[in-house]
Structures are given as C-alpha cells and as structure tokens.
UniProtKB/TrEMBL annotation:
It is found in: Nucleus. Residues 257-483 form the START domain. The keyword Transcription applies. GO terms for molecular function: DNA binding; DNA-binding transcription factor activity, RNA polymerase II-specific; lipid binding. This is Homeobox-leucine zipper protein HDG2.
Length: 733
C-alpha cells in the first residue's frame, strides 16, 4: 500500500528499456556485418525519413541501386544518387521473410537476392531499414504509453497535494503543521488512517454475509469413542451438507472478530514472504528436498510460534507443469467451492468464513480470506486434519502469482488443535501455450498419534498429505478439465462418445460420483463409524445414513461399509486389475458371474487408465434384467481410484443426450489404492487398498435398520476382499 508524499516519483518501469527492443539491439550488436556498417557506412544504412515513410505506407521501400553509396561516389563524384523502388512482389517476399527471420545471414541474403532479382546489398539495406522502422515504431508507442502514465501520475500527485493541504489532526481536528513532525512520521500517519478506513469498509461489507462473530474458537477435541457394535449412529444426506452428527464441531467455526483482523493481515503478509523464499531458495534451507528445521528457525524467526509438544513437522516441496492457464489456477484456489471439487481426494469439507479483501483491479491480487477446512485420506483409519487459516493471494513483481495459507490458531486463547499450517501454498508461473509451472510447498505441524499402524509409515513419509500429493491431484484434474473442453474427438474407436453435450453431462455425473465416494469413506468428524467385531484381520467399519429430499441419491436408509488392508502388489497392477471389465467377475459378487461389456467410453487423461466408462452386465440368468454401471478410473503417482455405481438405463440415455445429470440417483462404491511408501531401490512397494460399499437397505427413510442387513453387507465386503487377495496372489505367483 502506498502512502502520500510530496516527492513525485515515476514508476520504475518508465526507465526500463523495452524488452523487445533490447533483445533486438543485442542481436544486432552481435552481428559482425551489422556492426561494421554501423561504424563505416552509417549514411548508407538508412533512407531519408520521407522516403522511408513513403515506402512504408506503400508496403515498399527504397534503396540505392547497385552497390554501396561510397562505391558510387568514388566512380561518379558529381553524379546525383539514384533510388530504386522495389516491386510489390519483392516487398511482399521480404516482408514475409522478415517475420520469420529479421536478421538473415550472408547465405540467406544471397539466396533471397537471387530469388527476387536484387543485389545482396539491396536486400541487406532493406532489412536494415525495416529493423530501424520497427524500432522507431516501438519507441513511439512506448513513449506514448509513458507519456499517458506521466499525465496520470501528475494528476494523482496534484490530488494528493490538495488532500495534504486540507488534512486535519486526528487528535484535535485542527489543521496539521507538517514542520512539527518528520516526513516519515507524517507518511505513516496518513497510511495508518487510510488502512483503518479500508478495514472498516471491508468489515462492514463482510458483516452482511458472515453473520455475528463468536467470541470463542471451537474446541478441536479428538474423535469420540465409537458406540458399541451395532449401536449405529444415524446421519442425514438431505438438507445438510455436513450431516447432523451432534459431535461435529466443524460447523461451529465462524468469522474472526474485528480485533483479530489487523493481526490476520500481518500474518498473511509475513507468510507470503516466507512462501516466496521457501519456493525459490535451495540450500541451506532445503537439503535434497528435506527442510532443515534449524535453518528454517533462523531464517524465519517470526510466524505462529514454536512447535507444540508432541507435534511432528511435515515439510515438502514439489514442482510440475500443468495444462491450465495461471489465471484459472488462481481462481480455483481462491474459490472455496471450486477448490473443494478439484481437490476432492484431499479436502473433505471447506468453508470461507470471512472475506477481508476481494483483491484489486478485477482480479485476486491482494485477496485475503479466512477459511476452515478438513483434509482427508480415503480410509477410515487416518484421522482427518481440521485447520483454521487465512488464505492470501498476491501477484509478484515478475508477473507470477502466489497463494499462501497460514494457521490462525494463535488468535484463540487455548486452541487444542491437532494440525497447524505454517506458510503453505504455491507459486504459479505462466508458461507458453496455456500451461503453468506450479511450485507447491506444504509445511505443517501435526499430532498424528491417532493414525492406524497400517498407515503410519505412509503418513510419516509425506505420501498422504505432502506437496507431491497436492501437485499430482492438480495435474490430474487439469487433464480432466482439458478433456471436458476438447472438441477434436476421434470417432474411430468403438464406444467413444463424440457428442459434446453428452460428454460433458457424463463427466459431470462421474465427477459427482467421485466426490461422494471420497467424502463418504474418510474418517471425517462428520461421520461416526462403528467397528464390527469378529471379522478377522481387517476390521469392517459401518455407518448408516438417511437420504431425504436429495435428487442425487435414492431415498431411504443407506448402509456404508469400508475396510482397509495391505497387499504385497504394486498399486499399478492392483489398479489395472480392478478397472478392467474383463476381470470384474473375479471380484464383483453383485455381477453374478455375468459378462461385463463396455458400452461407452470417455478418455480424460494421458494414462489409458484415466477414463469414464459405461458398463453393461449381461446377466447369466435369463430371468434377470441387465444392469448398467457408471465407472470412473483415475490414477496419478500418489493415488488411484476405481469408483462405480449402478445407474438407471432411462436416466443414462438422458445424460448421454446432454441432459441434466444432477437428478440421476447414485450410491457410489469402489476402491482407493495408495502406495505403502516402502518403494526403495527401484522397487514398487506394496499397496494400501480401501474397499467401500454403499447399499440401500430400505427405501423408507424412517425404517429401522435390521441386523440382517448389517450382516449381509459385512459378508459382501469380506468376500470381496478375499476374492481380490486370491486373484492378486495368483498373479504374483
């Protein structure tokens, strides 16, 4: 933010040379022939202004006929110089060549002169004149732009002087006397008054949408002990996105108080400076992609305070080039709804509590939000990480963008948090052809003692919540979004959906299916899982929920069941086995041994496994009707998913014709495949596989859950696990 001042200073860019011209001049200076002519044949390089302008307006140019002027003067000292006007065809050919190569070498000039019937020197002079013309044109344009900037700044300076002349003392209300205080102090007073006014204005706007602030931050208590077996808590799908679990404290987090806002701004600005260093500095801060905590403490003494006792530090950095415009990435990160959808595999719930600044000049530069989010791993065995933080976006001097998160737990007197986010976020740099380079830093302090032993190694090595996971999801989703917008769809392959509207509707339906699966399988505090005893090595966890007034789900009582287990098979092989329709009857009990056939297909990524498919199960029993299954399989280096749901034939016909997919009822089931984090020495390691089912056990929402339904789902998931293990062991053998 700029303060007022008496001294007028032009913007720095007014004194910087035009980058295009600087590059052109550098290239000219490296050309030996061109320098030679600059020193010795200056009069022969350029045409007279009026002749050059005339040539330009007629798309032509004039040069001395024959050799250089000195040669002509030596032979004809009293003869007046003659000028030769090039033909329209010659000019067009040289103009076209100039666009491709403004600095032809001797060989190119000779070739061009032979083709156009000109002397090499004529070609050489024409290109010199053309470069001078372009240089003058750009200089005139730059001067005009800078002149307009000067006029604007001069007007601003006059207004500031008038404002200073009429300024009043904030204490007594009388006129100020500049001589009584230093110039710097006067500047700070003006800046403070302006910032106070801006904060008051933004607070008044935010208050309309946020509601009344609460004085205390909700207690982040550990998840409650599960009820006894078969005493199942009941959630609700309809009318409440978070369910109605009375132990869910996420909903009670609201906006910060007025007194907190100045501190939030200060934390956000400091976090942005820290993020920029964390993304750009190598050693000694980062040593082989591992953060040196002692060096970090010396480099950033400020922040959110010391690490709490019993907490563990996770710090990681990752970079990738993704197929998305940098502006769109910023918009996704600053819009909580888009952010939650794109990162559905990581973000189970998120909400914006307050908007302290919306940015300037119609973009997110300077935008500041207060948010709360819950981060997840797709398994009930890893507790979610709830965080309360500020998100700040800023455009850097080089044109890149940065978005940073910083925890606000220090604003509360005694917040018993289990996860704190130090400066974490990403630097986004524009690349050619609509690509962007993203450098992500994830730096948290966490109490992860509640993680199940099966997942401890994976979580502690950063595979679950680290920067690599965030970047991999972003890269994958950018591919998926690009496929939605694709128009050049090949129709040669059987089953490929080429109808643009049908593709978008089907991809939108599959997206909702994936989001529903990821949100329903984690250990979110909105869920209450019950562990069934007597099921063997892998515990099966179940949960019931009511589906009411939700067109996207069938009404009634839904029973969810999930279990996680380790299998000594690389994730890639497990993924390929589960997504292949030809091997589906080896594990899918509900297909009843029928032949599975792919009816429609949409590829949405580089990997052949990234696709949305419509499968038909041809029942082996002629008395049973065929079943349609919508399936999305997606994979990246950090996780793979195979998610599916039975769908109605009539509803899918509407979707394939471009109809609204929001009214297609879905109950997704599927698999989440994660690497175990033990891949060393070129090996691929094993897989952590989560199997989850959702079954409609009664179409009446008020019905009571029977023990028989629980036993049936328990047997279903146990049999599926055994079939997968048997099939994988056969492959391994």
């Amino acid at each position: 933010l700029l303060g007022f001042g008496f001294n007028f200073k032009c913007k720095k860019k007014m004194f910087e040379p035009n980058m295009f011209l600087a590059a052109m001049n550098n290239e000219d200076s490296n050309n030996h022939n061109y320098n030679h002519e600059d020193n010795n044949n200056n009069n022969e390089r350029f045409l007279r202004d009026e002749e050059f302008d005339s040539a330009n307006t007629k798309s032509g140019s004039e040069n001395q006929e024959g050799g250089s002027g000195n040669d002509q003067d030596n032979h004809h000292p009293n003869k007046k110089k003659r000028y030769h006007r090039h033909t329209q065809l010659q000019i067009q050919e040289m103009e076209a060549f100039f666009k491709e190569c403004p600095h032809p070498d001797d060989k190119q000039r000779k070739q061009l002169s032979r083709e156009l019937g000109l002397e090499p020197l004529q070609v050489k002079f024409w290109f010199q004149n053309k470069r001078t013309q372009m240089k003058n044109h750009h200089e005139r344009h730059e001067n005009s732009h800078l002149r307009a900037e000067n006029e604007k700044l001069r007007g601003d300076n006059i207004r500031y002087r008038e404002a200073l002349a009429n300024a009043s003392c904030p204490n007594c209300g009388g006129p100020t006397v500049i001589g009584e205080m230093s110039f710097d102090e006067h500047q700070l007073r003006l800046e403070n008054a302006r910032l106070r006014e801006e904060i008051d204005r933004i607070s008044a706007i935010a208050a309309k949408y946020v509601g009344k602030p609460v004085s205390s931050y909700p207690l982040m208590s550990p998840p409650p002990l599960p009820p006894r077996p078969l005493e199942l808590a009941m959630g609700n799908f309809g009318g409440d996105v978070y369910g109605n679990n009375p132990t869910d404290l996420f909903k009670s987090i609201t906006a910060p108080t007025e007194s907190d806002k100045p501190l939030i701004i200060d934390l956000a600005v400091s976090a942005m400076e820290e993020l920029m260093k964390m993304t750009q500095v190598e050693e000694p801060l980062w040593k082989s992609l591992v953060l040196d905590e002692e060096e970090y403490a010396r480099t950033f003494p400020r922040g959110i305070g010391p690490k709490p006792a019993g907490f563990r530090t996770e710090a990681s950095r990752e970079s990738a080039v993704v197929i998305m415009n940098h502006v769109n990435i910023v918009e996704i990160l600053m819009d909580v709804n888009q952010w939650s959808v794109i990162f559905a595999g990581m973000v189970s719930r998120a909400v914006t509590l307050a908007v302290l600044s919306t940015g300037v000049a119609g973009n997110y530069n300077g935008a500041l939000q207060v948010m709360s989010a819950e981060f997840q791993v797709p398994t009930p065995l890893v507790p979610t990480r709830e965080t309360y933080f500020a998100r700040y976006c800023k455009q850097q001097a080089d044109g890149s963008w940065a978005v940073v998160d910083i925890s606000l737990d220090s604003l509360q007197p005694n917040p018993p948090v289990r996860c704190r986010r130090r400066a974490s976020g990403c630097l986004i740099q524009e690349m050619p052809n609509g690509y962007s380079k993203v450098t992500w830093v994830e730096h948290v302090e966490v109490d992860d003692r509640g993680v199940h032993d099966l997942y401890k190694h994976m979580v502690s090595t950063g595979h679950a919540f680290g920067a690599k996971r965030w970047v991999a999801i972003l890269d994958r989703q950018c591919e998926r979004l690009a496929s939605v917008m694709a128009t050049n769809i090949s129709s040669g392959e059987v089953g490929v959906i080429t109808n643009q509207e049908g593709r978008r509707s089907m991809l939108k339906l599959a997206e909702r299916m994936v989001i529903s699966f990821c949100a329903g399988v984690s250990a979110s505090t909105a869920h209450t899982w019950t562990t069934l005893s007597g099921t063997g090595a892998e515990d099966v966890r179940v949960m019931t929920r009511k589906s009411v007034d939700d067109p996207g789900r069938p009404p009634g009582i839904v029973l969810s069941a999930a279990t996680s287990f380790w299998i000594p098979v690389p994730p890639k092989r497990v993924f390929d086995f589960l997504r292949d329709e030809n091997s589906r009857n080896e594990w899918d009990i509900l297909s009843n041994g029928g032949v599975v056939q792919e009816m429609a297909h949409i590829a949405n990524g580089r990997d052949t496994g990234n696709c949305v498919s419509l499968l038909r199960v041809n029942s082996a029993n002629s008395s049973q009707s065929n079943m349609l299954i919508l399936q999305e399989s997606c994979t990246d280096p950090t996780a793979s998913f195979v998610i599916y749901a039975p769908v109605d034939i009539v509803a899918m016909n509407i979707v394939l014709n471009g109809g609204d997919p929001d009214y297609v009822a879905l109950l997704p089931s599927g698999f989440a495949i994660l690497p175990d984090g033990n891949a060393t020495g070129g090996g691929e390691g094993g897989s952590l596989l989560t199997v989850a089912f959702q079954i409609l056990v009664d179409s009446v929402p008020t019905a009571k859950l029977s023990l028989g339904s629980v036993a049936t789902v328990n047997n279903l998931i146990a049999c599926t696990v055994e079939r997968i293990k048997a099939a994988m062991s056969c492959e391994t053998a």
